[in-house]
């Protein structure tokens, strides 16, 4: 492979802001794997946000990219899986599997798509120093004839339209809007764009915590919500505390610590088979590898209000943020019924197919 922009490249990132800023290019915030595609003839490499190759996990995309993209190019975009008019991040996670046979099976069963939103190189020319407006024009021309599963992300400079997208697109599984300065060159690894995400709150049961890597203080709170059958499902974690607050939380929660998991709703967490029927903490992640996933059990008696941005099925897509304790709420009252359900919106309308 011999391109004017060579792997690995750290993608340009976005910083969170509360409102959609004026005078920029606006795009949907896609909920998938950020990826930079390098193509030199038949050679294809799909690089992740951290620079690790994703190529082997998406053989169907390698074939499609050879067919639908220019012979020599570098594209920034998102690998997604769409089904029934929505993005399916959980199905995307299943693709990170060590067995090639499993990857091939899922490639047929739940094929992925690539949504391009920037062009970093074309032919023998690097476009990194070009302003966004020039890169966007070149991207649209380069992928003008591309067909499913390779798409160009919709973009606009109308802030009112961006507000409409922000309200509608969540129903298709997207989780916000990205705003990009029009005259800005591509700045690898820098938070030089802006992201605007939905924020909602939920009352959750705290049934345990993980210790911080620095020692016996709280690293993250383990959150639960009751399903329709009354089972406490693990929905995610609450983190990002100061060190002083981590120590305070460890002291606050000490009276609730328990070593008897017999009656604990997540008592079977160490049994791999138990994870098939319930949301329990401690499921091994393909991303974390051998990371210690042990946790400190607590009697599930305290309720916390947290802020979250997006649901991934029955759990929080990202780390939730602590808002306040809710002594006025009982653990049993923390159910999925409290969660706001976005109005459904067909993803095919976003992609124009």
Automatic annotation (TrEMBL):
Organism: Kitasatospora purpeofusca
EC number: 6.5.1.1
Keyword Nucleotidyltransferase: no
Family: Belongs to the ATP-dependent DNA ligase family.
Catalysed reaction equations from the record: ATP + (deoxyribonucleotide)n-3'-hydroxyl + 5'-phospho-(deoxyribonucleotide)m = (deoxyribonucleotide)n+m + AMP + diphosphate
Ligase keyword on record: yes
Domain ATP-dependent DNA ligase family profile per the UniProt entry, residue ranges: 105-247
CDD domains: Adenylation_DNA_ligase_LigC (cd07905), OBF_DNA_ligase_LigC (cd07970)
A Pfam family that the UniProt record links to this protein: DNA_ligase_A_C
GO molecular function terms listed in the Swiss-Prot or TrEMBL record: DNA ligase (ATP) activity
Keyword terms of this UniProt record: Ligase
Name of the protein in its database record: DNA ligase (ATP)
Gene3D superfamilies found in the cross-reference section: DNA ligase/mRNA capping enzyme, Nucleic acid-binding proteins
């Amino acid at each position: 492979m011999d391109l004017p922009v060579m792997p690995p490249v750290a993608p340009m990132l976005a910083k969170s802001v509360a409102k959609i800023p004026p005078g920029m290019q606006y795009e949907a915030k896609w909920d998938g794997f950020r990826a930079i595609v390098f193509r030199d003839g038949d050679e294809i490499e799909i690089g992740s946000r951290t620079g690790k190759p994703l190529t082997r996990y998406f053989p169907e995309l390698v074939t499609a990219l050879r067919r639908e993209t220019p012979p020599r190019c570098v594209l920034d975009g998102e690998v997604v899986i769409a089904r029934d008019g929505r993005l399916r991040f959980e199905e995307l996670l299943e693709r990170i599997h060590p067995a090639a046979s499993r990857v091939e099976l899922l490639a047929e069963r739940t094929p992925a798509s690539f949504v391009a939103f920037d062009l970093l190189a074309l032919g023998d020319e690097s476009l990194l120093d070009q302003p966004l407006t020039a890169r966007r024009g070149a991207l649209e021309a380069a992928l003008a004839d591309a067909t499913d599963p390779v798409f160009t992300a919709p973009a606009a400079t109308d802030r009112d339209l961006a507000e409409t997208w922000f309200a509608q697109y969540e129903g298709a599984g997207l989780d916000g809007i990205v705003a990009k300065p029009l005259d800005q060159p591509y700045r690898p690894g820098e938070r030089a764009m802006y992201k605007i995400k939905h924020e909602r709150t939920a009352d959750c049961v705290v049934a345990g915590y993980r210790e911080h890597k620095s020692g016996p203080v709280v690293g993250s709170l383990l959150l639960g919500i009751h399903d329709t059958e009354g089972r406490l499902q693990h929905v995610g974690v609450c983190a990002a505390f100061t060190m002083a607050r981590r120590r305070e939380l460890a002291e606050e929660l000490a009276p609730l610590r328990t070593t008897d998991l017999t009656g604990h709703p997540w008592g079977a967490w160490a049994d791999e088979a138990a994870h098939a029927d319930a949301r329990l903490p401690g499921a091994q992640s393909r991303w974390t590898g051998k990371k210690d996933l042990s946790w400190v059990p607590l009697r599930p008696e305290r309720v916390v209000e947290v802020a979250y941005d997006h649901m991934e099925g029955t759990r929080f897509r990202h780390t939730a943020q602590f808002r306040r304790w809710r002594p006025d709420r009982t653990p049993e009252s923390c159910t999925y019924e409290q969660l706001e359900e976005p109005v459904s919106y067909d993803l095919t309308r976003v992609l124009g197919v």
